[in-house]
Design a protein that fits this description.
It is a single chain. The protein is built from six helices and 38 strands. It has 609 residues and is mainly beta. A hairpin with a 4-residue loop joins strand 18 and strand 19. Pfam families: BBS1, GAE_BBS1. One of its GO terms (biological process) is non-motile cilium assembly. InterPro entries: BBS1, BBS1_N, GAE_BBS1, WD40_repeat_dom_sf. This is Bardet-Biedl syndrome 1 N-terminal domain-containing protein.
């Protein structure tokens, strides 16, 4: 492994302290392909030395999948996984001997349990009920002379009714020819019908005590929109609950035997709440986009949610009734959020939230203020914080390139708001903050009473004034347009020929504050103009005592149809008085005295620079 020496240069942002985190280990050739749920920290042998466990999904997604165990910075062991890992979590069982945690690895429809890093038990999700109509359809196909097209229609009707099909029926519907369908039925008609769901998320919850080595329950979320809580010894379902959509992440507080609350983020962009004694979920938050991170902070009475619309949202958990989860604030970030992690520094009594963004930075938030930034050099795909080895405050993350980095918090560090040193948020929206409202005075009460008594009259007067203001604004706008580019088109074209009025169009704009201006003239004609205008002369008429032009006229040999041609002239105000005048622009054919287009340009008053 490529192990680098500790470094203190962990931030490349100006104005941010660079010595809070000590880089203890970095392996750029680790080659990990993993996500945040596939990283955990556990004291595997109850010796006080916490190990790092990472479930690698393989370089090619489904190949060379391994569970790697690190002791400090050394690779302790590797274990081959039989299926793509979804999440791993340590939990404690009620077994004789020293209290060492077991490791649950969620893959597909099963949980593989490792104890002392050896395979211990495999738990499979309970099979789902097969629809009666599907069973009847398969019973008809076993009869002699059964029509496979009719059988296919029966399965399609079952699917259209809202029922889910078994894997065998789904495979039959994928057959494209009648020969393939007959072969499939002949081979699999006698096999039993089974409908199996898969896991989508995994977490843990203490059963009766908050101690680190107390008995732990396993909480599962499935593709069938079910949430199961498993007993850790017999692996039986203690309780099952349902949510309206497929769960993707969970955060749990409380004890199973006392009271608990499970916040579940689902694929429908909503967050639901599950409590002890409930069989169905209750809607808590309806987000504007999908959630990518969920962190509950019970001591702060809030929950942080990172969304795919680059926003970090905070909601209160201390409200009552409909405002139970009231929005506290929103921080709109400049980059997409890819991962989030809760950080608790017990020695400082501090609770932070680490937000990993697409710009290869980890932002530490204390409430809505950024208190630290770590430059990772590459976007982070997985992050975990906790005790590692004998260090209480260790930060482990894996980047998109597969590199593994371990950072340790230095002693006696403080986290203060960085203020304007960090420019990660484009908008900071705060909701729910109390405004300082002055006390009601006698004048305020009298004014309120007058508005109540004369509401209709005041509204009518307001509407009259509003319409009058709109009329004045429209008049001023029309007058400004007329002064800025009033165009007069003459029907006589080049060489004395008659042209349409809209053949040549002229627009003008003035740039600069003065005393020097840039007058830009743009000429264009219609795409179907034939013949196109040619041999045009642009002449400027102005007061020579006020302005001086570097070119009083300009020659245009050809004006291409449908293509705008711009001509720029520098105008200098030579008057010492704060006056302004108009400049007349005349476009005339070279061999004619009748202008094709004229425009009167109102020049602004020159500013003394």
């Amino acid at each position: 492994m490529d192990e680098e020496r500790p470094s203190t240069n962990n931030s490349g942002t100006s104005g941010i302290p660079a010595d809070r985190w000590l880089q203890a280990y970095h392996d750029r050739f680790a080659g990990f392909n993993t996500i945040t749920p596939n990283i955990c920290l556990a004291d595997l042998f109850a010796d006080g030395d916490t190990k790092l466990l990472i479930a690698d999904m393989g370089a090619q997604w489904g190949k060379q999948m391994q569970l790697r165990v690190y002791k400090g910075t050394a690779l302790l062991s590797e274990h081959t996984l039989v299926d793509l890992p979804l999440a791993i979590a340590p939990f404690y069982m009620n077994l004789p001997g020293p209290k060492t945690p077991a490791i649950a690895v969620a893959s597909g429809s099963s949980i593989y349990v490792y104890r002392n890093m050896r395979p211990f038990y495999k738990y499979s999700l309970p099979a789902l009920k097969v629809a009666d109509a599907e069973i009847e359809a398969w019973s008809t196909v076993l009869q002699d002379g059964a029509d496979l097209n009719v059988f296919r229609d029966l399965l399609v009707n079952v699917l259209a009714s809202g029922e889910s099909l078994s894997a065998k029926s789904e495979h039959f519907l994928t057959t494209s020819t009648i020969q393939d369908a007959e072969t499939f039925v002949r081979q699999h008609a006698e096999s039993p019908l089974r409908r199996q769901t898969v896991l989508t998320t995994l977490s843990t919850m203490k059963k009766s005590m908050h101690e680190e080595d107390a008995l732990t329950c396993i909480v599962l979320g499935t593709e069938n929109r079910d949430v199961y809580i498993l007993e850790p010894d017999a692996f039986t379902v203690l309780t099952s609950m349902t949510v309206p959509a497929v769960p993707v992440m969970m955060d749990i507080t409380g004890l199973f035997d006392v009271d608990y609350r499970i916040l579940v983020a689902c694929r429908d962009g909503c967050i639901y709440s599950l409590k002890r004694g409930q069989k169905s979920a209750k809607l808590c938050l309806e987000l504007h986009s999908q959630a990518v991170g969920l962190c509950v902070r019970p001591s702060l009475g809030c929950v942080y949610v990172g969304c795919m619309d680059h926003s970090l949202r905070c909601y209160s958990t201390q409200g009552k009734g409909p405002n139970k989860y009231a929005q506290l604030w929103i921080v709109q970030l400049n980059h997409a959020i890819v991962a989030m992690q809760s950080i608790t520094i017990k020695s400082l009594g501090l609770e932070l939230v680490a937000v990993c963004c697409q710009d290869a930075n980890i932002y530490m938030y204390k409430e809505k203020e950024v208190v630290d930034v770590i430059d990772t050099g590459d976007p982070v795909t997985a992050i975990r914080y906790g005790r590692l080895g004998r260090e209480d405050n260790a930060l482990v993350y894996v980047t998109r390139s597969g590199a593994l980095t371990v950072k340790i918090l230095r002693r006696n560090q403080t986290f203060e708001s960085l203020g304007k040193a960090v420019n990660n948020s484009s908008t900071n929206l705060t909701a729910g903050n109390k405004f300082v409202i002055p006390k009601k005075t006698k004048l305020f009460v009298d004014q309120t009473m007058r508005e109540r008594e004369n509401a209709a009259t005041m509204h009518r007067v307001f509407q009259q004034d509003f319409q009058r203001m709109k009329l004045i604004a429209a008049r001023q706008y029309a007058e400004t347009i007329q002064k800025a580019g009033a165009i007069q088109t003459i029907t006589t074209g080049p060489n004395g020929k008659e042209h349409s009025i809209a053949e040549v169009k002229l627009t003008a704009r003035v740039q600069g504050l003065g005393p020097e201006f840039a007058l830009i003239i743009t000429l264009s004609c219609a795409k179907d103009a034939f013949p196109p205008p040619c041999d045009l002369l642009i002449v400027y008429s102005y007061d020579s005592s006020i302005y001086r032009l570097d070119r009083p006229y300009c020659f245009l040999p050809y004006l291409a149809p449908g293509i705008a041609t711009s001509v720029s002239v520098r105008v200098t105000c030579i008057s010492e008085l704060p006056v302004s005048d108009s400049i007349k622009v005349i476009v005339v054919p070279y061999d004619s005295t009748a202008p094709s287009v004229t425009a009167l340009i109102s020049m602004p008053v020159a500013q003394n620079v």
